[in-house]
Structure formats: structure tokens, C-alpha cells
TrEMBL record:
Membrane-traversing stretches: 28-49, 69-89, 109-133, 153-176, 196-215, 244-267, 287-311
Protein keywords: Cell membrane, G-protein coupled receptor, Glycoprotein, Lysosome, Membrane, Receptor, Transducer, Transmembrane, Transmembrane helix
Record region (Disordered): 332-365
Localization, UniProt: Apical cell membrane; Lysosome membrane; Melanosome membrane
UniProt-recorded name of the protein: G-protein coupled receptor 143
Keyword Transmembrane helix listed: yes
GO molecular function, one term: dopamine binding
Membrane topology: Multi-pass membrane protein
Upper classification of the organism: Eukaryota, Metazoa, Chordata, Craniata, Vertebrata
GO cellular component: apical plasma membrane; lysosomal membrane; melanosome membrane
Any Gene Ontology biological process: melanosome organization
């Protein structure tokens, strides 16, 4: 699982709360992490592989939203691999891991492994948080017709730049001035926890606001396209709203236990003795949420693919096939244009107005199709309600 306690455990003089959870049935906890991460990894890859009898999706333009969804899954896959590797070493080489607790030890490789594996997991999941935030921003900008494939470069700079900067800054502050002297006080730990949970809290707070604004903008687009709001368009708007709801539901389910666990452990750290009898229920709650984190954090990858694409099935198509080059079809604004200019100004004005109207309708359909990409039912409804979409 992804928790700043992983980096804190690398400190030989770790705090009592971190010692409590990390020493609670470590074999069982590592086994849970390996099992959950392995299942999520296999199912996520299965979801992303092409399926037999499934035609490739045709889009009029390359979508930055589809690229972001794929990058979120890649971050989850790489983060899950980090969990499997770390937990496997933890289980297979207990003597190697025991050297982490040795103060002023001569063998530095246990500490290097501890810090490196923890940073890998934390960095990948933090990048996934930033990509999820970018997805909410991109969805809103697409509907507002202010985004495109070129913005993916800015998203890459923001996501990887902020993820690396916050991770390195948090680790540097935690281990300053050296690994053997870290965790001597909360002034080392608090900045590390803030840089870790900042992107998580950003998604929890800001993404629902952006998703709600996007849904409202989609409704306005659907109403303004033909001046009416049909049943098919209402269903399409509801489908997009449900998709956003599923994404946030998965995120809350997978990461709410982290916030609860961290709050309980910080409360225990504030106590003079965490082993007091009145604190028994809080210790039990912290240990329970610790195990829940080991189950739910790795499952985010698979659950997100369900929210993004729905269940894609078991029939995997591993045969290489030659795909058609998705040549961009001519825009409908050029359809009906005469080779020779019209000699009548009145006819030219009518043609220009139709061209603008058709172009606006096409841009609206492109924006909505990007939001409903990966959703079979949403695409079917879009085909029925959008004339331009029927030719894709």
C-alpha cells in the first residue's frame, strides 16, 4: 500500500505509532499486499488488452482524455509492481530487512532498499493522483472547447514535475540531516506527510467541483445544439454524470482508509504512552485500517478501469492485426461547398450560416464523445442522438 509510514519506517529511531503498525503481523500484511496487488495487476492488464470481436474505437481526433486515462492505469500498474517487489523481499529476506532497525549499521543496502522502494510506490501513486486531477481539468476544458491533444504536454510537465518535486522535498525534509537522525521530532515528519497527502486531498476536494461544472456544461451543450433536450440527450448527460460519480466513488473507497489511519496514528503520537489501556480501541482501529489499506490501495487500478471502461470481458485477442490508419475524415463544414463561387450573395450568406452551425455541432459532438469514450452504452446513445457521430 501507499503510505508515508513506509518512508518513516526506514528511520532506525522511528516513532512508536509507526512501530506499532509496521510490527503488527508483518508476514500477514505483506501477504495481503502481494495478493491484492497481484489480483489488481492481472485484472487491470486484462481490462486494457484488446478483446475478440471488439472493433477499435474510432475518434475524429486524438483525445487527451483517453491518454490521461491510460496513464492513470499505467501509474497504478507500476505502483502495484513496486508493492509486490517490496513485500516479496520483506517476506523472503527477513534478516535483510531486520538490518534497517540497526542504528549506525555498516550495511547500507537495507536502508537503500527501504527508501528506494517506498519512494517508488509513493511517487507512482502521487503521479496517479495528479493525472486524475488533470483528467477533471481536461474534461472541463474539452467541454469549454479550450483543450486539445497539445495540452497533454502541459499535463505531463505539471504531473511529473509536481510529483517528483513533492516526493523529493518530503523525503529530504524527513531524512535531514541523515537517515540515522530522522524522525527525532514532528518537524521532520509533518512536511513529509503534507507533501504526500496534498495531491490526494486536492483530488478529493477539487475534482467533484470540476466534474459538477463539466456535467452542467454538457447539459448546456446538448440543449444548445438543436434547441431541444431529447430523452437520448438526457440519458447521455446522465451517463457522463454516473461515470464521474464512479471515478470519485472508487477514489474515496480506496483512499479514505489512509486518511482515517493517519489521523488515528497522529493522535497516538500525541500521547505520552500509546500502550495505555484507554487507547486500546484507537490502537485496534489503527491496525484494522492498516490492513484495509493493504487491500484497497492496490485495487485502485482495477476498480478505475471498471469506472473508466466498464467490464470489457475475458476474450482477449492476442493476435497481431493490421489496423487501418485512422485518417481524419473531412469535416462536415466542407460538405456541400461548391467548386465555383455562388454569384448570389444571399445564397452565400445562407451557406455560411449553415457551415458555422454544422461546425459548432461537430465541435459539440467531439467534446461529448471524448467524455463518453470507453463507455459502450454512452457511445450507443451518442450514435443515436448525434448525427455526426454516426459516421465514425
Amino acid at each position: 500500500m501507499a503510505s508515508p509510514r513506509l518512508e518513516t519506517y526506514c528511520c532506525p529511531n522511528r516513532d512508536a505509532a509507526t512501530q506499532l503498525v509496521m510490527n503488527f503481523e508483518p508476514e500477514v500484511f505483506c501477504g495481503v499486499c502481494i495478493g491484492s496487488a497481484s489480483v489488481s495487476l492481472l485484472l487491470t492488464i486484462l481490462q486494457l488488452l484488446p478483446k475478440k470481436g471488439q472493433s477499435p474505437r474510432k475518434m475524429p481526433k486524438a483525445s487527451s482524455s483517453s491518454t490521461i486515462l491510460l496513464l492513470i492505469s499505467v501509474c497504478d500498474i507500476l505502483g502495484g509492481l513496486g508493492m509486490i517487489f517490496r513485500s516479496s523481499v520483506w517476506l523472503g529476506f527477513p534478516g535483510f530487512i531486520a538490518n534497517i532497525s540497526v542504528v549506525n549499521g555498516t550495511d547500507v543496502w537495507p536502508s537503500v532498499f527501504c527508501v528506494g522502494s517506498a519512494m517508488w510506490i509513493q511517487l507512482l501513486y502521487s503521479a496517479g493522483f495528479w493525472w486524475l486531477f488533470c483528467y477533471a481539468v481536461d474534461s472541463y476544458l474539452v467541454v469549454r472547447r479550450s483543450a486539445g491533444l497539445s495540452t497533454i504536454v502541459l499535463y505531463h510537465m505539471m504531473t511529473w514535475g509536481l510529483a517528483v518535486m513533492l516526493c523529493v522535498e518530503g523525503i529530504a525534509l524527513l531524512y535531514y540531516p541523515s537517515l540515522s537522525s530522522c524522525e527525532n521530532g514532528l518537524e521532520h515528519a509533518i512536511p513529509h506527510y503534507l507533501t504526500t497527502y496534498a495531491p490526494l486531498l486536492l483530488v478529493l476536494v477539487v475534482n467533484p467541483i470540476l466534474f459538477r461544472r463539466t456535467v452542467s456544461a454538457v447539459a448546456s451543450l446538448l440543449k444548445g445544439r438543436q434547441g431541444i433536450y431529447t430523452e437520448n440527450e438526457r440519458r447521455l448527460g446522465t451517463e457522463i454524470q454516473i461515470r464521474f460519480f464512479k471515478i470519485m466513488l472508487v477514489f474515496v473507497i480506496c483512499w479514505s482508509s489512509n486518511i482515517i489511519n493517519e489521523s488515528l496514528l497522529f493522535y497516538l503520537e500525541m500521547q505520552p504512552d500509546i500502550n495505555e489501556i484507554p487507547l486500546k480501541n484507537i490502537r485496534s482501529a489503527a491496525l484494522i485500517t492498516w490492513i484495509i489499506m493493504g487491500i484497497l490501495n492496490p485495487m485502485q487500478g482495477f476498480l478505475f478501469t471498471l469506472a473508466f471502461y466498464g467490464w470489457t470481458g475475458w476474450r482477449v485477442d492476442l493476435k497481431w492485426r493490421k489496423r487501418e490508419i485512422p485518417w481524419e475524415s473531412m469535416s462536415s463544414s466542407t460538405v456541400g461547398e461548391n467548386t465555383y463561387p455562388s454569384p448570389v450573395n444571399y445564397q452565400s450568406n445562407i451557406h455560411d450560416s449553415k457551415k458555422v452551425s454544422t461546425t459548432d455541432s461537430q465541435q459539440t459532438d467531439e467534446a461529448i464523445s471524448m467524455l463518453s469514450e470507453g463507455n459502450t452504452s454512452g457511445d450507443d446513445r451518442l450514435t443515436r442522438s448525434c448525427p455526426i457521430y454516426q459516421g465514425w
